[in-house]
Structures are given as structure tokens and as C-alpha cells.
Amino acid sequence: MLTRAIAGIGLAVAVLATGGLTTAAVARSQPDSAWSPVAGAPAPLQYEQRSWGDPKTELGMVIQAPNGWKMVKLSTFEVKFTSPDGQRNLRVNGAPKDQPIKTAADAKYAVVSSSTPAFKLISREAGTTRATNPAFAGVVFHHQTLTYTYTDPARGRRLVVDRFVSADDLPHTLFEVSTGGRPQDAAALTAITAKATEDFIRLP
Asked: What pLDDT was estimated at residue 43?
């Protein structure tokens, strides 16, 4: 229910105030065995808690992101993380959209399918994920996920997993998670998207 999501926000603030935000997150710096064992691939992923948002405090959004990935702030509530080799990325936009997740996914599909070179839709899926961070205990995330490939003139074939997420019975999109890399990174990109979704916290 929406009340659970609101209550979760209140709990997250309380955790932050007591300095317990680190322990509130689960699976901190745990290896991810889903990383593709391809030539040149790094060691299994480790995750770390990252936050951004209000310019005065850099708090507002909190997720688990791959350890060591460089974070660049694109706007107040949107960031992009890039792997050390520059081949893979994670983008999270925590600015709510005043539209349902299906409508948001429809709009994104319309744009990328008509303007992206050699676009190919791999899948479009609706699903749910139970929040794993105790600060959002009981919250269920609902999401629409687009997975597609396209051709980058400089880097060749690329794979994108783009997810629009709402919480409980919220009627609008709460946040967007998008990962990108090579087609052979599919398992890792899916795992990174799942991790960012399940451990998401939005502070007021």
C-alpha cells in the first residue's frame, strides 16, 4: 500500500539520523556471480551504497551500485555510474514522472525505436520486486522493463536494460533504472538493474 511506502520514507530518515544507513542496506559489497566470464571482463562485481540528491547534503536517493564505478551527477536526482573500462554503465533517475510506468515505458520505446540506429527490441516485461532494504520494509516495487540492442558507431553493438518503477499503489513512476553494455554483458546488466531496484530508497 501507499502508506507502507510513506512509512518507509519516514524510517529511512530515522535511520539516517542515527547514522545507521549503512547497516540498513543489505548485501553491501557482496560479489555478483552473474558477471559474464568473457575475455577482458573484470572480477565479479562488488556493490557499495551510493547516495545523491539535495546539493547541500547529497542525500535523497540511495542505491547499491557496483563498487569502484565513477559517479557523475546529471541533475539533482539523476546520476550515471561508469565502469573503470568505460564499457558499462548504470543510470538512475529519481525524479518522479507524472505518469504510470506502462505509459513511461511506451513513451521511451517510441523514442528509441524510431531514433536509435539498428534498434532491436529483445523483450518487454512487467514484474514486481520486493524491497530488500529494511527502510522500505513491506514495499513492493512494480516495474516495466525494456531490453534492447542498438549499434553505436564507435563501440559496435550495445545492449540496454531500461526499467520504470513505481511503489505499491502509487499511480506514477517513482524512478527509472537503466544499464548499458555489450550484448555479452546481459546477465551482469540484468543483475545490476535488479540490485539498484530492490535496494532503492528515496529520502524526502
From this structure: 57
The domain in which residue 93 lies consists of: 2-26+48-182
Compare 139 and 28 and report the one with higher pLDDT. Answer: 139
Number of domains in the chain: 1
Question: How far is residue 4's CA from residue 36's CA, in Å, rounded to a whole number?
Answer: 36
DSSP assignment string, 131-188: --SGGGTT-EEEEEEEEEEEEETTTEEEEEEEEEEEETT-SSB-EEEEEEE-GGGHHH
Hey, what amino acid is at 67? Answer: N
- Count of other CB atoms within 10 angstroms of residue 80: 17
At residue 107, φ and ψ (nearest 5 deg) are -65, -40
Task: State the cell numbers at 102.
Answer: 506502462
Whether 24 and 134 have beta carbons less than 8 Å apart is answered as yes
The verdict on residue 189 lying in a domain is no
Contacts for 19 with CB less than 8 Å, ≥ 6 apart:
none
The pTM (predicted TM-score) of the whole model is 0.81
Cα separation of 57 and 178, whole Å?
24
192 domain residue, yes or no = no
Give the Cα separation of 202 and 204 in Å (integer).
7
Question: 24, 9 in Cβ contact below 8 A?
Answer: no
